[in-house]
Specification:
Elements (H helix, E strand, L loop, with lengths): L1 H13 L1 H7 L6 H9 L49 H5 L7 E2 L7 H17 L3 E8 L10 H8 L6 E8 L6 E5 L8 H15 L5 H30 L2 H9 L9 H5 L3 H8 L1
Parallel strand pairs: 1-2, 2-3
Antiparallel strand pairs: 3-4
Length: 273
């Protein structure tokens, strides 16, 4: 090693070009002036990462990290809009049962309780109840309406009370009568029935209890409506026709005190259930 160094030094002495290659760099006048003013810092270029040097500090064959793309905002559910897939079941079909709830707004137990009571009412009364359930803030979309539904689906049915019930807000409940004898139910009587059922429902804040109270009160008022329609029908029959009917053994059944208390038994049935 020492021999090689001696040979290299002797060669440089005999060759002036080698000495010029090993000579240190000299400052120019401009660079020396900047150095004295503090505008030039020796070795500063080694501390700055240039674009040419940047790839040297990155590992080979490694993809650049990408920032995650912003997630798309989730669609918000419009509380006032009825899902389009349920409109057919609400407005374009005659319901198979007395409770229409395609959105499943009630629990299974609540559904069983309401259906059971509506079936009981249908067996005991000649005026059916068709209960359509909507969410509290939902709006009936055009061109659908309660009046149009009654005229299109219940024109040939027995006398039926069609109810649009907005679960959680009894004050928005709508009522209309369709079918035979619907024209005999005056508007004032219809509003009295609806207001009576609304008041009962608003006596409690629980959603399930509101619906139960509304149906029970509606059933009671429909019973009295049924009796008044029968009385009006009997009053319109001529006395001669009534006498001939009684001779044939087809007189109407007498109404005793038990018939007056019959509607109030509905409360007992609901309380026991």
């Amino acid at each position: 090693m020492r021999l090689a160094l001696v040979v290299f030094v002797s060669w440089c002495v005999s060759n002036p070009s080698c000495l010029s290659a090993l000579a240190l760099p000299e400052w120019s006048k401009e660079e020396r002036a900047k150095l004295e003013k503090g505008e030039l810092i020796p070795g500063a270029s080694l501390l700055v990462e240039t674009e040419e040097a940047t790839p040297l500090f990155k590992p080979n064959n490694q993809p650049e990290e990408k920032l995650p793309e912003p997630a798309e905002p989730e669609p918000t559910y419009d509380l006032k809009t009825i899902p389009p897939e349920h409109l057919v079941q609400y407005f374009q079909r005659f319901p198979s049962g007395y409770l229409v709830d395609p959105q499943r707004l009630l629990t299974m137990q609540e559904t069983q309780d309401r259906v059971g009571f509506l079936n009981y009412h249908a067996e005991d009364s000649e005026i059916d109840i068709r209960l359509y359930l909507f969410d509290a803030q939902q709006e009936i979309p055009e061109p659908h309406s309660l009046k149009k539904l009654v005229s299109e689906r219940y024109a040939d049915s027995p006398l039926t009370a069609v109810v649009f019930c907005f679960v959680g807000d009894p004050s928005r409940t709508l009522l209309a009568f369709g079918g035979k004898q619907a024209a005999q139910v005056k508007f004032q009587e219809q509003m009295r029935i609806l207001d009576s059922a609304r008041i009962k429902a608003l006596e409690t804040s629980d959603t399930s209890s509101q619906l139960e109270a509304f149906i029970v009160q509606l059933s009671i008022r429909l019973y009295w409506l049924e009796q008044s329609l029968k009385d009006a029908e009997l009053a319109s029959v001529p006395p001669a026709a009534t006498a001939s009917t009684s001779k044939q053994g087809q007189t109407p059944a007498p109404r005793g005190n038990s018939s007056r208390y019959k509607p109030f038994l509905l409360y007992v049935v609901v309380g026991v259930s």
